[in-house]
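Researcher: Next entry in the queue.
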Amino acid sequence: MKLIEKVGLRLLYRTDPERAHDLAIRALNLGLTSKPGVYTSTRLAQNLAGLEFPNPVGLAAGFDKNAQAIAPLLRSGFGFIEVGAATPKPQDGNQKPRLFRLNEDYASINRFGFNNAGMQIISERLALRPPVGIVGLNLGANKDSSYHAVDFIKVLETCGKYIDFATVNVSSPNTEKLRDLQGEKALTSLLAGVMRTRDALEKQIPIFLKIAPDLTNEEIVQIAQVARKTRIDAIIATNTTVDRTGLKSEYRSQKGGLSGKPLLERSTQVLAKLAYELDGSIPLIGVGGIDSAQSAFEKIRAGASAVQLYTALVFHGLSLAYDIAEELDQILENNGFSHISQAVGTGIRDYL
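Model: Structure for this entry, 352 residues:
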């Protein structure tokens, strides 16, 4: 981490976490953050779900909810970014405070509730995105919607032409009954509808599915079966957790989704179980607790072809993305891998 980032983070820690996040977005747009560009190499570059990734380190959804800082984020070292979640109608989300920084645990808890400007405004911003770089959109559902599945389709229809992939998010714990869509019948119906909508788009982008870490082995097996049946392009494992085991911070009992370092072990176990069930038939993106090149390598060994991070940026700064990509390249070389694909899944059984 650079000295200027250390100073900036210390200043941000003195303010409310959500306010600090808004200031970070503003700093990006003012050009006050590091712009190292994208680190890449022949070892890290790969084609995944039909997209050419310069490196496997991505930004998870939730950081840039309203697609306000796409250009500077693409210059911050990420191989790809995901914005949103976007819902059909704008919504304020849950009452504040709704974001809590757990410093002792290197974690955070949020109960935002899909606060965003709505698909119309977000689509207008996506239309102005740079032509170079991989930009995905997390699809969400309005809290007052009677048909969550229809909401995903509406957002995809509106924004699909401006993005490189779309993620069906059925794993946020902050929208009532949303996680119910992870059940076999509901998920099959939902994904079938989304895939039909995608096929009708002028630009047929890949469709990803984001799942929760709070799943039983039986539920993971069912999701793998549905993923194969509906022929989705990738699965993101995992979203935040409702588990609070082992936390030390004063905010540990707050309601919402927990992200950050405490999620690493459980999310990696879910990833490995999913990788075992899919046996390479669908690429996986590992999320949860990544804060270093070593933890990113753990996800790759557990079956991930790419990774995403978010919460670690709160504690280590935006330069972390570039640093992880560069150090991961070295780790792969040190372990005798000439390409990242050779390392994917090599340690699955270690995490089962």
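Model: The chain has a mean pLDDT of 95.
Researcher: Noted, moving on.
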